[in-house]
Specification:
The chain has 291 residues and is an alpha/beta fold. The protein has a domain of 197 residues: NAD(P)-binding Rossmann-like Domain (Rossmann fold), CATH 3.40.50. Helices cover 39% and strands 16% of the residues. The chain contains 10 helices and 12 strands. The strands form 4 sheets. The protein has a 6-stranded parallel sheet with strand order 2-1-3-4-5-10, with helices on both faces. A two-stranded parallel sheet has the order 6-9. Strands 7-12 form a two-stranded parallel sheet. α3 runs parallel beside α4 and α7 crosses α10. It is globular and about 55 Å long. 47% of the residues are buried. The protein binds NADP nicotinamide-adenine-dinucleotide phosphate (NAP). NADP nicotinamide-adenine-dinucleotide phosphate binds next to α1, α3 and β4.
C-alpha cells in the first residue's frame, strides 16, 4: 500500500494519541487536534476539519474511558464519544478519500477464554463502556473496508497533567496510592497485558504500512493479574506498599470486566509487525522517570 504523507490525530491530548505523534516517522506531516479544537461528536466540524487538513489518514485518539461511570451517569457520553464520534469520522474519512485508524479495547471480550483472543473471536461486551467501544468498531469497519480498528489494552505511558482519568493510568495511580497509603486493594483475578504507549505507537506505524484494513490486536508481550502488576510496580519503583489481593466479586466495581483478556498479536506479526517487548521491560523503562 502507499505510504501516508499527512496524518490528522483527534483527541490529541490522550496518552496514546501523544505517543502516536511522537513516534511518527520524520517524513510524515502530523496535524493534531485536541478536543477543544475538534469535537468528534460534531459531524459538521469533523467534515470541515477533513476539508481543511486533507489528511491521508486520521488516527482517532479520542475516547470515553471512564469504565465504571459509563454504567450510569456516563452512558450517554460513552455512546456519543465511543460510537457516534467514530461513525462521524468513519463516514467523513471515507467520503474524503482518507483512511481512519480507530482504537478499541480488549474489553469487547467477555473473558471466558483461557488462551489469547484473536481477531476472529466473537466479542461479547460485559458493560456499557465495552458495548460502546464495540459499537464504534462496527460503525468504523462498516463504513469502509480500508479503515483499521486496532484493539489495545491496559495502556500506560506519559500522560497530560490534566487528564480525565483518575491517576492517569494504572502504574501512576498505584505509585500515588502506594506512597500515600502504604496499602492498596487490587483484584487478582483479571489477567491481561499491560501495554506501553510508545511501544504500541511504533507497532501502529508499522501496521499502517502493511495492513489494507480490518481489525487487529496490538499489545506488549506477556500477561499478568492486576495484583501482580501492582506488586511489580512497587518493586521496580522501590515503594513499600502492601498489595491486598481481592477477587473482582469482592472488589465490587460497578462495571463487570473480563477475567481474561490477553490479545493475540499473531495477525499483526504475520504482516511483519515487530513483536512488542515483554510488558515488564517496558514498565521498567516507564518507571525509570517516575521512581
Ligand atoms: N487507557 C486504557 O487503558 C485503554 C485500554 C484499552 C483500550 N483503550 C483505548 O485506547 C484508545 C486511547 O486511549 P487513551 O488511554 O489514550 O485515552 P485518553 O488518554 O483518555 O484520551 C482520550 C482523549 O479523548 C479526548 N476526547 C474525549 N472526548 C472527545 C471528543 N468528543 N472529541 C475529541 N476528543 C475527545 C479527551 O480529551 P480531554 O483530554 O480534553 O478530556 C482525551 O484527550 C481509546 O480508544 C481507548 O478506548 C484504552
Amino acid at each position: 500500500m502507499n505510504s501516508p504523507r499527512t496524518i490528522l490525530i483527534t483527541g490529541a491530548r490522550g496518552q496514546l494519541a501523544r505517543a502516536l505523534a511522537i513516534a511518527a516517522p520524520p517524513q510524515i506531516e502530523i496535524m493534531t487536534l485536541e478536543r477543544t479544537e475538534l469535537d468528534i461528536c460534531d459531524a459538521a466540524a469533523v467534515r470541515a476539519a477533513l476539508e481543511t487538513h486533507r489528511p491521508d489518514f486520521v488516527f482517532n485518539g479520542a475516547a470515553y474511558n471512564l469504565v465504571d461511570i459509563a454504567e450510569a451517569d456516563g452512558a450517554r457520553a460513552a455512546l456519543e464519544i465511543n460510537a457516534l464520534g467514530p461513525a462521524n469520522l468513519a463516514a467523513a474519512c471515507r467520503d474524503a478519500g482518507a483512511r481512519l485508524v480507530h482504537f478499541s479495547t480488549d474489553f469487547v471480550f467477555d473473558g471466558t477464554k483461557t488462551t489469547p483472543y484473536d481477531e476472529n473471536d466473537k466479542p461479547h461486551p460485559l458493560g456499557v463502556y465495552a458495548a460502546s467501544k464495540l459499537c464504534g468498531e462496527n460503525v468504523v469497519l462498516a463504513a469502509s473496508p480500508r479503515h483499521l480498528v486496532i484493539r489495545v489494552c491496559r495502556l500506560f505511558g506519559p500522560v497530560e497533567a490534566q487528564t480525565q482519568k483518575p491517576g492517569g493510568n494504572f502504574p501512576l495511580l498505584m505509585l500515588k496510592l502506594g506512597r500515600e497509603r502504604g496499602k492498596v486493594r487490587v483484584v487478582d483475578d483479571q489477567i491481561g497485558s499491560p501495554s506501553y504507549t510508545p511501544d504500541l505507537a511504533r507497532g501502529v506505524w508499522q501496521l499502517l504500512e502493511r495492513a489494507d484494513g480490518g481489525a487487529f490486536h496490538l499489545s506488549n508481550a506477556g500477561e499478568v493479574s492486576f495484583a501482580d502488576y501492582a506488586a511489580e510496580i512497587f518493586q521496580i519503583a522501590g515503594v513499600e506498599c502492601e498489595v491486598e489481593r481481592v477477587s473482582s466479586a469482592d472488589y465490587g466495581a460497578p462495571a463487570a470486566r473480563p477475567l481474561y483478556s490477553t490479545l493475540s498479536n499473531a495477525k499483526a506479526h504475520s504482516l511483519g509487525v515487530t513483536p512488542l517487548r515483554e510488558w515488564r521491560e517496558a514498565l521498567r523503562e516507564f518507571l525509570g522517570s517516575h521512581a
